[in-house]
Amino acid sequence: MLPLPTDALAAAATLPGTGGLELDAWTILLLVLAGFAAGWIDAVVGGGGLVQLPALLLVPGISPVQALATNKLAGIMGTSVSAATYYRRVHPDMRTAGPMAAAALVGATGGAALASRIPAAWFTPIILVVLIGVAVYTVARPTLGATSNLRWEGNGHRWVAAGIGLVVGAYDGLLGPGTGTFLVISLVSVLGYAFLPASALAKIVNFATNLGALLFFVPYGAVLWGLGLVVGVANLCGGYLGARMAVAKGSGFVRVVFVVVVGALILKLGSDVVADLV
C-alpha cells in the first residue's frame, strides 16, 4: 500500500469541527466508507448504526457520547434523503407516520438524556436475544411482509403506531444501532405492513428519532460537527441509492436484505458478548 503524501495527512489532522481530535486520512476514508454502507443499509431495512457507530468509536480520543451524538448527525442526513425518496415513490400513509414520528421524537429525546448515565453494555445481551427472536420469527414465516394486511383501524391503528414509536424512539436516543430494523419488524409483525411500505414509514420515524436525540445532544455540546458532516454526506449518498433500490425491487428484496442484516447484527453483538465474557 502506497503511503499518502505528508501534506494530505496534515490536512486530515486539521479537519475543523472535530473537537481537537487528530484524524489521519485513512481514518477519514474508513469513516466515509462506513457512512455510505450505513446509509444504504438504513435506507433498505435499518441497522446501519451498527456499521457507522463502531467506526466512529475507532477515532482516537472520541468519547462514547460524542460518537453517539455525531452518529445521529450523520444518520439524520441519510434518513432525510431516503425518507424523501420513499415519500415520493411509495406514498406512505402519513396518518400513521405522523403520530408514530411525534411519539418517537419524544422518546428519543428522553432516551438521549439517559445515554450518558446508563452503561451501554447492559443492553447488548438483551438486544441480542431480541434479534435472535426476530430472525427466527421472520424465517419461520416466509410470507411475512409479502403484502400489507393492516391490523386495527382508525385511532386504534394510530395509537399502536405511536406506542411503537415511543418505545423504539427511546431506545434510539439511548443507544441507537438497529433502530430501523426494530421499526421495520414492528410495522410488519404488529401493524401488518408489507416490508416495502414498512421501510418507507420507518425512515420517516427514524428521521424523527435522530432529530429528537439531536435536540438533547446539540445543547449538550456532544456533536462533532465537522466529522459528522463528512460522514453524513457519505451516509446521504448511501441512503439515496438504498431507497431507490428498495423501491425498484420491492418487498421481496427488502425481506432478503432484512434477514441478512439481522443475521449480521446477531453475529456482531454475539461476538461482543463473548469478548466481554472472555
Automatic annotation (TrEMBL):
**Bilayer topology term:** Multi-pass membrane protein
Q: What is its main location?
A: membrane
The record's section on PANTHER family has: MEMBRANE TRANSPORTER PROTEIN YFCA-RELATED (PTHR30269:SF0), TRANSMEMBRANE PROTEIN YFCA (PTHR30269)
Q: What is the lineage of its organism?
A: Bacteria, Bacillati, Actinomycetota, Actinomycetes, Micrococcales
Q: Where in the cell is it found?
A: Cell membrane
UniProt xrefs under Pfam families: TauE
- The portions of this protein that span the membrane are 25-45, 97-115, 121-139, 182-202, 214-241, 253-270
The family note in this entry says: Belongs to the 4-toluene sulfonate uptake permease (TSUP) (TC 2.A.102) family.
> Which protein is depicted?
Probable membrane transporter protein
Q: Which UniProt keywords apply?
A: Cell membrane, Membrane, Transmembrane, Transmembrane helix, Transport
InterPro entries recorded? TM_pro_TauE-like, TSUP
